[in-house]
Structure formats: structure tokens, C-alpha cells
Design goal:
Helix content: 40-55%
Distance between the termini: 15 Å
Order of helices and strands: EHEEEEEHEHEHHEHEEHEHEHEHEHEHHH
Number of strands: 16
CATH architecture of the largest domain: 3-Layer(aba) Sandwich
Number of domains: 2
Largest sheet: 8 strands, mixed
CATH class of the largest domain: Alpha Beta
Radius of gyration: 21 Å
Strand order of the largest sheet: 5-6-2-1-7-8-9-10
CATH superfamily of the largest domain: Glycogen Phosphorylase B
């Protein structure tokens, strides 16, 4: 079976979508699926040094990079030419993201070629996603994306919540829920953590992640607990990050808030190892892979009820859920600090949850079943 994945950017700075893609393709390759990825040389605001002349072997797949002409819409005419010449040789196409030139073009070419295509919308079809960028996104959806969505062989959602909110749009689709895979090879924590007063936020820094809410809650907790410190690991729009740093200064916690920047690999593992617990107070998530990663490292978590994993976290007794209000979040953080003797057992239960539900092998197997279904249909 030959499967083509299409994603606007392969940059780690794009956060969870890119990270999930790498786990998808490596898991599929281990199952014997021939995988190619078409993407651009987008690297956040700039361009990467990825070679444009030849495919690159990464994560068990062949990555084809094409020049991004504009940051807006990730316009890439060379990708369009390549898709037109090569897409028909694949059994299925898996498109990641919407409202971008690569995803729209891949869907159009696949539809004309009669190749079944699957779209993973990355939360862009939920309430929060559709409300951003004013009315432009709704106009684009009505004129462009809706027809392609309804022509897809399946829509790949990563949680029931993401699927249910997308269905509120009244679209005719075949929804399939397959969660994002998470690396469960990380070592769990045993005994005391190095810095039990360290509260960790690790994610892409964006308005929807609720970091401003966390800073206000942290200021309240810090006023009563001199031992606590907040570590912010992640990158985002520089002007927005600076506004958050100014907020920390206004709240009087600038000296107790560390800004680690973007981390990956050993740096990310070290951040989880240092943390007493992890907090993700998002206003919207289609999955919440950062929370799942924290659990994979044996770290207790606090999430908002907009993180789709929250019900499973509570059921597994791997963490807590807090309302998206500074006072409520501060109370949850105080309660978590008071439960320090339970952190190890909470972490172990979180690791087991991730191992059982979100391992790369389990997710890749479900994807293969989906590809077989759409190609046989």
C-alpha cells in the first residue's frame, strides 16, 4: 500500500500537528506501508534549509519539500505541479490541516484523479477554530473547503469532542476518530522530582492555550507559596510572547517565571523531569498532545475541560480538571501541591493510560484499517 501525506509545514515550531505526523508515518512504516510526505520548506515565520531537489528519508518515510512562496496560505506552486504529476500513483492521500494552499490543492487533485483522500482538520472546524480570523474563515469554508470536505473519503478527528463540534456545521461527512499517537518509551519518574515546586507549561504559545490565565493563577499561588516557580516551554509569535512577559512583570512574578523557549528531544524530556506537575488551561484543543506527553513521562497534569483528554485523565486518576478562570485554576494548583505524596502514583496511572490508548503501534494499526476501508469502498 502506498500512502501520501500532505501537510503545509513540517517545522517542529508548528507544534502538535507536525509531531503527530512524525509518529503517524514512522508507525505506518513499521507496519510495511510505503509512505511519502509532501510539504513545504515553511519554518514558522521563515524558511528552513530543507533540500528542494530530492526527497529526504525521515521517520521511515520519504519527505518531499517544496518552496513556500508566501507565508499567508502557504502558497507553493511547485507543490501543485508535483501533486498533479504524482498523486495518482498512490492508493490513498491523508491531508493534514485545512484553510491552506497545500491541503486545498491536494484535495482537489485527489478528487479529480479519483484517489480517496482523508482530511485531518487539526481543530480548525470546531467552534473556536471557526471563530478565528473574523468572518474570513467562514466565507472560505462555504466557498472552498465545504465541498472538498464532503467529497472526502473520511474526516479524521482525534477526539470525540472535535468530531461533535465539527458536525455542528451541518456537513455530510464520514467521521472517524483516531487519537494522536504518543511516544511511550520515555522513562517514568521514581521517587522525588528535582524541583517539586516547578509548575510546567509546555506547548506552542498561542492565545488559545490560556497562558495568560495560567500566569494570573500562578501569581495568586505564588503570593502564598514562596517555593513555587513557573516554567514556560514553547515558542510563539514574538509580539504575543513579549505581551505575556509584560503581564508576568505586571503581576509581580517575572522573577519566578522562566521562559525556556522551544524545546524538543532531550530538552523536552529534561523539562518534564524537572516539573512537579504540568498545566494546560487551553480554551480549545482538538486533542491535547502536550498533556498526553506529560503523562507519558509520569507527570501529573491539570487541564481545562476544553482539552478532550480531560474525562480520561479524571477516570484514570492521573490528574485534575480546572475551570478556565484564574481563581478556579489557582485552587486546583493549590490542591495539586497539597497532594505531592500522590504524584508518583498519579504519574504511573497516566503512563498506563497513554500506553493503553495512545501508543504509536495502536494508532498506526487503526490508520491502516482506515486506508484499507477507503481504498476498498
Amino acid at each position: 500500500m502506498r500512502v501520501l501525506h500532505v501537510i503545509p509545514s513540517n517545522s517542529p515550531l508548528r507544534g502538535g500537528p507536525t509531531q503527530a505526523l512524525h509518529a503517524y508515518v514512522s508507525g505506518l512504516a513499521e507496519l510495511g506501508v510505503s509512505v511519502d510526505v509532501a510539504t513545504t520548506n515553511d519554518d514558522g515565520r521563515g524558511l528552513s534549509e530543507a533540500p528542494l531537489e530530492r526527497p529526504v528519508e525521515e521517520h521511515g518515510a520519504r519527505f518531499h519539500y517544496f518552496a513556500r512562496r508566501t507565508h499567508f496560505y502557504t502558497y507553493s506552486p511547485t507543490m501543485r505541479s508535483w501533486l498533479g504529476a504524482n498523486l495518482s500513483s498512490y492508493d490513498a492521500v491523508h491531508i493534514h490541516a485545512m484553510f491552506s494552499y497545500p491541503s486545498v490543492t491536494a484535495a482537489r487533485v485527489a478528487r479529480r484523479a479519483g484517489v480517496p483522500f482523508i482530511i485531518r482538520p487539526l481543530g480548525t472546524m470546531n467552534r473556536y477554530g471557526m471563530s478565528t480570523k473574523g468572518g474570513l474563515k467562514k466565507i472560505s469554508f462555504a466557498l472552498v473547503e465545504k465541498g472538498l470536505v464532503e467529497a472526502s473519503a473520511a474526516m479524521h478527528f482525534t477526539s470525540d469532542a472535535e468530531r461533535d463540534e465539527a458536525l455542528e456545521l451541518g456537513i455530510r461527512i464520514k467521521p472517524v476518530v483516531i487519537p494522536n499517537p504518543v511516544d511511550v518509551s520515555a522513562e517514568g519518574r521514581a521517587g522525588d522530582v528535582p524541583n517539586p515546586g516547578t509548575i510546567l507549561f509546555l506547548s506552542r504559545i498561542d492565545d488559545k492555550k490560556g497562558l495568560d490565565l495560567l500566569l494570573r493563577a500562578f501569581a495568586s499561588v505564588a503570593s502564598r507559596r514562596p517555593e513555587v516557580r513557573l516554567e514556560v516551554a514553547g515558542a510563539g509569535e514574538p509580539s504575543y510572547v513579549e505581551s505575556l512577559k509584560r503581564l508576568a512583570a505586571t503581576l509581580g512574578v517575572a522573577d519566578r517565571t522562566g521562559w525556556t523557549g522551544f524545546v524538543r528531544g532531550a530538552g523536552k524530556a529534561a523539562a518534564f523531569a524537572r516539573a512537579g506537575f504540568f498545566v494546560l488551561p487551553s480554551h480549545s484543543e482538538n486533542f491535547g498532545i502536550a498533556a498526553a506527553e506529560a503523562m507519558a513521562h509520569g507527570v501529573p497534569v491539570i487541564v481545562s475541560d476544553r482539552v478532550p483528554l480531560h474525562d480520561e485523565i479524571v477516570a484514570a486518576r492521573a490528574g485534575m480538571v480546572a475551570d478556565r478562570e484564574p481563581e478556579r485554576l489557582a485552587a486546583a494548583m493549590e490542591e495539586m501541591l497539597a497532594k505531592r505524596n500522590s504524584w508518583q502514583s498519579m504519574g504511573e496511572r497516566g503512563r498506563e493510560l497513554v500506553r493503553r490508548r495512545y501508543s504509536r503501534e495502536s494508532v498506526a494499526g487503526r490508520l491502516v484499517e482506515l486506508y484499507r476501508e477507503v481504498t476498498n469502498r
